[in-house]
Amino acid sequence: MIKTVQAVFYALQIRKQKEFSAELLYQLGEQQALLAEELLPFYGGEANLTKVHNDYQALPIHSLKDLAVDGNDLMNDLDKKPGPWLKEQLTCLESAVVCRQVANKKEDLLYMAEKKQMNSAQ
Q: Its Gene Ontology biological processes (predicted)?
């Protein structure tokens, strides 16, 4: 409960200044974003619940589980063993999909992961 209140309060502070970014909307989740939006009129803002709902629904993924690749795909494709790199790589791919820098397609994500690995090896 405390984490939800903290997240909604943080979201409200951002929302008082500007619209939710895709990344923040993704991190918050629809329920917390809508709660922050509902509170906006109490702080002099104008709530637009429909926009928040539609923007959330338009996100390419709603959780890491929706990503077209998983840790096994990355380990197999990059021929690497599990380690901290795996979480970092998945987080990077997740963010790239949410921000629409890459399509949520297995081949596109594996290509991006390979590029990132080659760049970090140099």
A: tRNA processing
pTM for this model (two decimals):
0.90
The set of residues, in sequence order, having a beta carbon less than 8 Å from that of 43 and lying 6+ positions away, is 12, 16
Residues 67-97 have pLDDT tens digits of 999 999 999 999 999 999 999 999 999 999 9
| Ordered domains of the chain (ranges, CATH) | 2-57 (no CATH), 64-121 (1.10.246.80)
Segments in the chain forming alpha helices (H): 2-15, 22-28, 30-39, 49-57, 71-78, 84-98, 106-121
Query: In angstroms, rounded to a whole number, what is the distance separating the alpha carbons of residues 23 and 59?
Result: 9
| Mean pLDDT value across residues 94-117 | 96
What are the pLDDT digits (tens) for 16-53?
999 999 999 999 999 999 999 999 999 999 999 999 99
